[in-house]
Design a protein that fits this description.
Length: 568
């Protein structure tokens, strides 16, 4: 048997110069043949047809994968804001708009402005030293300035047996020798960190060893971190460090004074041409007292952009391979060598079936129809439905988060810099990937399935409300709690609910799960189960309305009774 088809090889060999846009006027529906799609106006009800009409616009190739900080994502947020306005939501972003820009852009040290002079000798950037990228997690700031500042030896990095007191290091530059070799770290345990110098008030840390990556100078896209304290850091070679002391480092005692250091560096942020933006709208509540409280519904508007690299996948070949070998898309790692002859036959048969209805096509766009175009269009449908009905007692926040794919940056930014009172949020609902819940897509799938995480982690009452409501609904959902019990694939930590969880806001994550097109250029509108997505949308709308109309806000579990098992 031929090990792979010629078309499958195109996954590896199609040059980017051969780019072609995937067709959206002629659509292959696996169960229904070929249809022609025509955009139309939506209705107040949450329907499959409305979701389809929205998603074919939102996940079109022209959106270029909606990567945060690009034109495609900017266009996507413009669409969401226009819909908010049409629906009648009140702007709740910045400066009277629906938008909140996050500081996601180019970050770097300017090589022409940084300097470090040790014991009167100017050190060479990239040869003798390199500033360290600031990190909130490591409590390392990105700005430093010193003029003949005192230096002190701090011992080995990560040596918890050495106490660094404010009297020893405050306002000084602390030099650390490399950390002692460490043994293997148990799975699911956080990496150890050393806060001794920053907590004692050191002005800067010089870490002796290999120089940190040059990305600090060449730059990267990211969010400017907010760092507690003012301790900066740089990596420095052993030879450069030796100039600061008259005795070899391995013979020094912690607290030994060294020679003075002068230097300066500032981590700089440059805003992109097309800023990454959260989109926030409010439906005011009807109760004169409770309208000051909020129930929030969110989804993320970004995806991962265009295919990178010098080759471009052939759409049907890639999807056929993933269908057989990678049922959870990018979550599954397999090698070509692991594919059996029987599996190659399955793959080639799928490709042959696709060829009966359409020719081969190169595909360079990660459309993100499921992730999270599906959640976004459900968000808009819920907003339109609620705005067409009598307003609930509490106000509703509809928030479209940006830069979720960059590390939950949009939701993190909004919860750190809320445009509405954060402590007045009674509950939050996050929707991500509501397009692939068929029994053939995911484990425990089916026409009424929904995966739910987090409903009882902070508020047992929130979970009780959801289950009680579901028991009396005319279209009950089959709730899959299995991901919440095991947290497989670190699932709870991979979407925007985390940002609300860290502020003890009761939050539930709704999804239909990881499927074959996850983070693939095959994640297109033609493969979405719109009927299922609409059903989940109606479920979330009823939950949110129920919570918004309760006489009392949801009770948050006492600290000792919260499920903090997810380490995000």
């Amino acid at each position: 048997m031929i090990r792979s088809s010629v078309l499958l090889l195109a996954v590896l060999t199609t040059p980017l110069a051969a780019q072609g846009r995937s067709p959206t006027s002629k659509i292959f529906w696996p169960d229904e043949g070929v249809r022609t799609f025509t955009a139309r106006a939506t209705k107040p009800e949450i329907t499959a047809d409305d979701l389809r009409a929205r998603l074919y616009q939102f996940a079109d190739d022209s959106m270029m994968g909606r990567e945060a900080g690009t034109l495609g994502n900017w266009k996507a947020t413009e669409y969401i804001a226009r819909e908010y306005k049409r629906i009648g939501l009140v702007p709740a972003g910045e400066n009277g708009t629906y938008f909140q820009e996050i500081q996601y852009g180019q970050l770097r040290y300017d090589s022409t402005k940084v300097r470090l002079i040790a014991a009167g000798t100017a050190l060479q950037l990239g040869t003798d030293w390199m500033p360290v990228i600031p990190s909130a997690a490591l409590q390392l700031a990105g700005t430093f300035g010193a003029s003949n500042d005192a230096v002190v030896y701090g011992g080995r990095w990560m040596d918890s047996t050495v106490t660094l007191t404010p009297a020893m290091v405050r306002g000084k530059i602390v030099v650390f020798a490399p950390a002692a070799p460490a043994g293997p770290r148990p799975a699911n345990t956080p990496a150890p960190r050393d806060y001794r110098a920053s907590e004692a008030g050191a002005a800067a840390i010089l870490l002796v060893g290999e120089l940190s990556t040059r990305i600090a100078i060449t730059g990267r896209n990211g969010l400017m971190p907010t760092v507690p304290g003012n301790t900066a850091a740089a990596s420095i070679t052993p030879a450069a460090a030796a100039t600061l002391f008259d005795t070899p480092l391995d013979q020094l005692a912690p607290g030994t004074a060294g020679k003075a250091v002068t230097g300066a560096w500032t981590y700089e942020y440059t805003a992109p041409e097309y800023p990454a933006r959260n989109v926030i709208g409010v439906l005011p509540g009807s109760d004169p007292v409770l309208h000051h409280q909020y129930v929030l519904i969110g989804a993320h508007n970004d995806h991962v952009g265009m295919v990178r690299g010098s080759v471009m996948p052939e759409h049907d070949s890639l999807r056929a391979f993933n269908k057989v070998m990678r049922p959870q898309g990018a979550n599954d790692r397999v090698s070509m060598e692991s594919v059996t002859p029987a599996q190659w036959k399955q793959i080639n048969d799928l490709i042959a079936g696709a060829r009966k209805v359409r020719p081969a096509r190169a595909d360079s766009v990660n459309n993100g129809a499921d992730d999270d175009g599906s959640g976004t269009v459900v968000l808009l449908e819920i907003a339109e439905r609620m705005a067409s009905q009598p307003a609930p007692k509490r106000s509703m926040i509809f928030i479209s988060h940006t830069a979720e794919e960059k590390g939950l940056l949009g939701s993190m930014w909004w919860t750190d810099h809320p445009t509405l009172p954060r402590d007045s949020i009674v509950a939050a609902h996050n929707m991500d990937m509501l397009g692939k819940g068929r029994v053939t897509d995911v484990r425990f799938g089916g026409p009424a399935s929904v995966q739910m995480l987090g409903s009882r982690r902070l508020s047992a009452e929130f979970g009780d409300v959801i289950d009680s409501l579901n028991a009396v609904r005319s279209e009950p959902m089959v709730i899959d709690y299995s991901w919440d019990r095991t947290n497989a694939l670190n699932r709870f930590c991979r979407s925007d609910q985390v940002s609300y969880f860290r502020f003890a806001i009761p939050v539930t994550y709704f999804s239909l799960g990881y499927a074959v097109d996850y983070h693939q250029p095959t994640d297109e509108p033609q493969y979405i189960d719109y009927v299922h997505g609409a059903r989940v949308g109606r479920f979330v709308e009823e939950i949110a309305r129920t919570v918004a109309n309760r006489a009392e806000r949801l009770k948050v579990n006492p600290v000792g009774e919260r499920d903090l098992s997810a380490r995000c």
